[in-house]
Structure formats: structure tokens, C-alpha cells
TrEMBL record, chains A, B:
NADP(+) binds at L7, G8, Y9, G10, T11, V12, G13, S14. This is Homoserine dehydrogenase. The active site is at K200 (proton donor). GO terms for biological process: methionine biosynthetic process; threonine biosynthetic process. Residues 132-310 form the Homoserine dehydrogenase catalytic domain. Its EC number is 1.1.1.3. The lineage of its organism: Bacteria, Bacillati, Bacillota, Clostridia, Lachnospirales. PANTHER family: HOMOSERINE DEHYDROGENASE. It catalyses: L-homoserine + NADP(+) = L-aspartate 4-semialdehyde + NADPH + H(+). L-homoserine binds at E185. Pfam families: Homoserine_dh (PF00742), NAD_binding_3 (PF03447). Pathway: Amino-acid biosynthesis; L-threonine biosynthesis; L-threonine from L-aspartate: step 3/5; Amino-acid biosynthesis; L-methionine biosynthesis via de novo pathway; L-homoserine from L-aspartate: step 3/3. Residues 8-124 form the Aspartate/homoserine dehydrogenase NAD-binding domain. InterPro entries: Asp/hSer_DH_NAD-bd, HDH, HDH_cat, HDH_CS, NAD(P)-bd_dom_sf.
Length: 405, 405
């Protein structure tokens, strides 16, 4: 029997208890040990609930109990999670977490500490909810040099963009619907501004390239600027707008960004709709692979946490090597990154057209019925810096979206 | 340094050497050891080629060299692979294989033997080429009870069906094109009759349910009966015909089958086209996940084999537990399995219609321009047995395809 403690009895924490109860028998078989939840740390008491007797309010009870071998940290946020996790590792306990803020900020350090302590720090649930992606990156794609990771890593924004497309809804209407469905929080900033996706791509990039990618260094743009008109144009091109978090090797450099982008049906992420997540990986020998599933939600996330608990229980006394050094990876200046851009400008008289053609050279015009008052087009490949300079010369565009084709 | 030997210098074997040469440096870092190919077993000599000095013709040289810790078996076929692999395990060597025939037939036994010998028998490349699926099933979905696995597991047939759909080609034309592109063998039987997919779903089902699923027990139907007219009807329904290999828990029973099926765009496998493979898994807590990538090909397959070598090298002296007992799983009789069916019958006069309606009850008619001489429809849910009995009463249909919606 392996004793564990769960820090935080919120959505994911209660999901962990539910999964262990529901599938306990087969989990024990696969694990080779019974998993016993000895403590749950929470500020609340949960009087009268089945977990009441497991609740403790004082972390030191857990920390100082040598019977507890694995800590499940599902509180979220950097502190006190970081302090708790570090103390646990130093006490020789393995930690399984769903906490993307913690992993993005302190992943490298906590992995090094775990290695030294011969315990494990596992975080499958921190990216892509239930989708197996951390373990495949660590253990299955070990023969490859990763060239690109591009993900739809935030279910809320994907739901909003899917809804805008399927219902011709504007951003505010789609956001409200996402909030009503419980897919978006009342303060949706972390999702719609791309901050959540940014932390997740920082984690994936660090693992893919084996060095510390700081999330603060990643250019991040959310979806609040996307309008129903943009979606109309996307459809006219047979394309779709997705909030993509991407990191890519170009020559000897890696760049990373989070931004809405236009993609076509030939891209495996095109059909990832609604609250689903998808993660596309290109390796130099495996070619293209894609992982798809529920990116959030109580049970899918708990499934990933419990799978980590199983792995930690199977590896008591042994560290599972993870390739993420604390050495900082200097990302390529985003200004130098090249894309095509989709651009809409107000006015489509001959003068406007002539100016666009003079500034951007060869462009591909995109037309949508009923929008004859604007001039919209796809540019050729341009660096971000070159695009900005050109955009300034034609006046502020109505919108510009990066293009993945 | 870890010494390995490669059995068979064919497509995959030479791919393994190429991947180790190309990515050797990062593989060593991830693995913690340098991987050294000490021998290659092949009947040929490869005079003048860089591998010439590694070639041996006598397996006992490899078997009796205690320095060789890992055997890569990429010969294919049950014998002599089975004998070689068994001997290697008994000598305390780990084995990594891409050989689906071997794994489907002897997987359970070789896993038990490996456990006893404290070595590893790994076979990521035996299903889905490079796509990580075996390791995710074994190590990432451990918190779940698997309810369904459905895969597009054969790139050749998926290419043919995609081509029939995109070019309105008939089966023979699409097959010829697949052969010209090198995607289909001159004798394409193992692919087009579904035998290849059958072995792969047997392996996945055994792992998902933890018991031996014999491939001989799996109802298998290929794609040679699919016509361009069927594809026209599929398009008219907004659907697609895919060769799906599926195993599913219904109540306390599992059924498994390989057959062409109609699926709609809402299914994640719908957009898996061309030579790509996709594997859809439904767990009772994780929900739906899907894995996508190159299902075959020299480098993708070699990527999976080398990832297994890395794992084996990291686990010398320790067995990675795999949950696949040799106890036979009795599959549900396929006759009891329920589907909807798409049916085409010759003749669409009132008499024919009346008979169909009398026999099948409520049906959904499907029309295609220029095919007014036939009567085509979707049935309600029927067991295979009930369908056969009803189909007999209306005379032999022009075609019938199972429906996934």
C-alpha cells in the first residue's frame, strides 16, 4: 500500500478522490500497490462529507508523516504550492501536480531537486488536461529532435472561437455563452488574453528543447481583438481562426508565441473544436504527430494526476529522468519571425488598393459578400518587424491575423 | 555505453541505424548512456557499406555476447523472430520490436518471461508506426477503465479510401496508385483484407483490457468490396468510409472487429486521411483522446523503435510492468453486436420499397443524383444476426456498410 496526501480539495482534488474510488481496483492492479489517501489538506472542514476524517489544516502533519510517499498538489498558483512542494521533495516524497503556474516557473529547479532526492516530480495534468503529452514528450519522442510544437492549449478560447464560427456570433456573445456553460470564468482574462496558453507552451517548449523557456519571454496575444467579420473572412478562405501556442526551431534558434492564427483543413489542428485541446508535434524523424482530448474538466484532469500517482508509486526510490535543464533558452526575437499575414484595411478605392500594392507587393485578395467597403488580403512571408513597418505606411489596419499556410 | 544488436537490416533496421547516427547526441543525453550498435544480423553482407563490419550471419554470436544488453528485432514474421527473441530474454537481454505478428501471437508470454528475467520487452513500433500509443496505454491511461479503442491502423487502406473519395476513383485505380507511390505492396492482401489492422487491434485490445485477445477471434472484413458508388453515397451523407479496427466494452463483454465503417466529421478520426493513422481511445474518466501520426514509414517506425531502446537502456535491471495477462479474453459473439447499417439494394420501384419498409421498419433514405435505379437507406440499430436475417429476406443487397453514427 502506498499512502498519498492531496493538497487542495477543489475541482481537481475531489476528482482525484473520485477516480481513485471509481477505478481503484484496476489502478491497484496496474500499479502493483493499493493507493490510500491518508490526508487531504484544505482550509475547509467538509463536515458530514465522506472525506471529513481525512481533512487536515496543518501541512506539517503531512510533511512529517514518513508514511506519506506521494503528494498530490492541486491547489494552483505559485505560493504556497511552491514552498509545500519543495519541502515535500526535500523530505523524500514524490509530487504529482496539475499546477501550470508552478511548473512553468519552478519546473527545472523542482526536477533537479527530485533527481537529487531520488523522488519524482510529475506534472502530466499541467498541460492539456487529460491528454497524455508530458510523458510522450519525455519518454516516447526520445529518438527525435523536436522541430515544432503547436497546440490548442486552452479550451475556453477554443470554445469561443468555435462558437463564433458555428453561430456567426461576435466575441462578447460567444464569451457569455462560454461563461454560462461553465467553460469560462467570470474573470476570463487568463484565458482570453492567452496567459494560460503561454504558461503551457513554456512547459512544453522547455521539455522539447531540454532548457528553461521563461514564459515571460513568450510573445502573447489573446483573442479579444478577433471579430465576427474576421471569422467570416476565415470561412471565405476555407480556414479557421485558432488560438495557437507554438514554439519552433528555425535554424539554430527557437521562437515561441501565442496568437490567433488562421489554419486550413490540411492541418491536424483544424478539426480540434469546442473545449477540446490538440497538440501537434513535429520531430525530425517521427514526422508529424498530434495528441487530442479534453484539455480541462474535473475527471480528465484527475485521470492525468492519478496516472502520475501510479507512475510515482511504481518508481519509489528511483528518479524518472526528465530532460529539462535550468539553463535558460534565449528565444529568437519575435520581430525576426516570419509569417504570412491576413490584413483588412478600411476603404477599397483605387487609391487604397494602389497603396497596399505599393507597400506589400504581391498580395492575394480575399473577398466576402457584403464587405465591399474594405480591402482584405494575404501578404507574402514577412518578418513581424517588416510587417509592422509596412502596416504603419498604410495606416492602422482593421485587423491582422497571422497565417499558418 | 549500452551495446545493442539489430536483427534484420531491412527498411526499419536501416532506419534505426540512421536515427541513431542522426540524433545520437541528443539520444545519449536523454538516455543517460551512449547507444552503440555492436552487431547487425542479416543474411546479406553489405560489402563496402558503412555497416559491413557490424554484420554477422550467426545469431549465437549476438546471443552469447554478454556485452549486448538490448536486441532490436525488426525482421518481421513469427519465426525465427519468436525463437530469437525468447532466447535473448532468457539470456537476460531486453528486446525492442516492431513486429506486430510476433507481439499479437506471443506478446503475453514474452512479457511474462521478461518480468521473470528482470528485462524488458517493448513494442511501441508494432502499432501505429511512430505514433506513441503503446506507452500511453501502459503508462498514461492507468487511471482509466478503457471503454473503447477505435483506430485507423493501416495506412495503405486509408490512402486507398482517401483517394477514392478525393478523386472519385474506383478501388482498383486507387490501389494501383497506392502501389505506384510505394504505399501498397505488390501483394496487398494483408492490408486490403484487414489482416494487418486485425493484428494491431488485437495488441491494443490486449493492453487495454489486460488479457489476451487472440487475433484469430476478431471478425475481420477488408475494403475490397467498397465501390466508388459507396463513396458517392458516403459523401451525400456528409460522411466518410474508413477501415476501422475497434474493440469496445458493452456491459461486461468486449467485442472487436475490423471493417469499413461510415463516420461523420464530428468523430476525431474523420479527418485522418491519406497514409496517416489515428487511434481514438475512450476511458471512463479521461473521456475521449486521440493519437495521430505516420502509421508506417522507415523513419517514423525507427523513431518508435529507438525510443524503446532508450527506455530499455534506462531500465536495465528493472522490468517496466505491462498489464497483459496470458488469460484469454473471450470476445462477445460478433453476431450480437449492434450497429446501424447503410444498405443499397437494386431496384427502387414501389414493390422494392414496400418490401424494405416491411422488413426493416423505420429507415432513413439516402439519395444520390444519377443513382435513381437503386434504393439506399440507413437502418436503425440492429444486431449483426438480425441484420443478416433481414437482408436475406430482401435479397442480396448491392452493399452494406456499418455506420458509426
Amino acid at each position: 500500500m502506498v499512502n498519498i496526501a492531496v493538497l487542495g480539495y477543489g475541482t481537481v482534488g475531489s476528482g482525484v478522490i473520485e477516480v481513485l474510488r471509481l477505478n481503484g481496483e484496476s489502478i491497484s492492479k496496474r500499479c502493483g500497490h493499493d493507493i490510500n489517501v491518508k490526508y487531504i489538506l484544505d482550509l475547509r472542514d467538509f463536515k458530514g462529507e465522506p472525506v471529513e476524517n481525512l481533512i487536515v489544516h496543518d501541512y506539517s502533519v503531512i510533511l512529517n508523516d514518513p508514511e506519506v510517499k506521494i503528494i498530490v498538489e492541486v491547489m494552483g498558483g505559485v505560493e504556497p504550492a511552491y514552498t509545500f512542494v519543495k519541502e515535500a521533495i526535500l523530505k523524500g516524497k514524490s509530487v504529482c501536480t496539475s499546477n501550470k503556474e508552478l511548473v512553468a516557473k519552478h519546473g527545472a529547479e523542482l526536477l533537479e531537486l527530485s533527481k537529487a532526492q531520488k523522488v519524482n516530480f510529475l506534472f502530466e495534468a499541467s498541460v492539456g488536461g487529460g491528454i497524455p503529452i508530458i510523458r510522450p514528450l519525455n519518454q516516447s519522442l526520445t529518438a527525435d529532435e523536436i522541430e515544432e510544437i503547436t497546440g490548442i492549449l486552452n479550451g475556453t478560447t477554443n470554445y469561443i472561437l468555435s462558437k463564433m464560427s458555428s453561430d456567426n456570433a461576435d466575441f462578447d456573445t460567444a464569451l457569455k455563452e462560454a461563461q454560462n456553460m461553465g467553460y469560462a470564468e467570470r474573470n476570463p482574462q487568463a484565458d482570453v488574453e492567452g496567459y494560460d496558453a503561454c504558461r503551457k507552451i513554456a512547459i512544453l517548449s522547455s521539455l522539447a528543447f531540454g532548457m528553461q523557456v521563461d514564459f515571460e519571454d513568450i510573445y502573447t496575444e489573446g483573442i479579444t481583438g478577433i471579430t465576427d467579420t474576421d471569422v467570416l473572412y476565415a470561412k471565405a478562405m476555407g480556414a479557421s481562426i485558432k488560438l495557437l501556442a507554438t514554439s519552433k526551431k528555425v535554424g539554430n534558434h527557437v521562437y515561441a508565441m501565442v496568437a490567433p492564427m488562421l489554419i486550413k483543413p490540411t492541418h491536424p489542428l483544424f478539426s480540434v473544436n469546442g473545449v477540446f485541446n490538440g497538440i501537434f508535434v513535429r520531430g525530425n524523424v517521427i514526422g508529424d504527430v498530434m495528441f487530442y482530448g479534453s484539455g480541462a474538466g474535473k475527471l480528465p484532469t484527475a485521470s492525468a494526476v492519478v496516472a502520475d500517482v501510479v507512475d510515482a508509486a511504481k518508481h519509489i526510490g528511483t528518479n524518472i529522468m526528465t530532460f529539462w535543464s535550468s539553463k535558460k533558452l534565449e528565444l529568437r526575437d519575435v520581430k525576426a519571425v516570419e509569417h504570412r499575414f491576413f490584413v483588412r484595411v478600411a476603404g477599397c478605392d483605387d487609391k487604397a488598393r494602389a497603396l497596399v500594392n505599393e507597400v506589400f507587393g504581391e498580395i492575394e485578395e480575399v473577398k466576402v459578400d457584403g464587405r465591399e467597403e474594405e480591402y482584405s488580403f494575404l501578404t507574402g512571408f514577412l518578418s513581424e518587424a517588416a510587417f509592422e513597418e509596412k502596416a504603419d505606411r498604410i495606416g492602422k489596419p482593421l485587423s491582422r491575423i497571422r497565417v499558418m499556410f
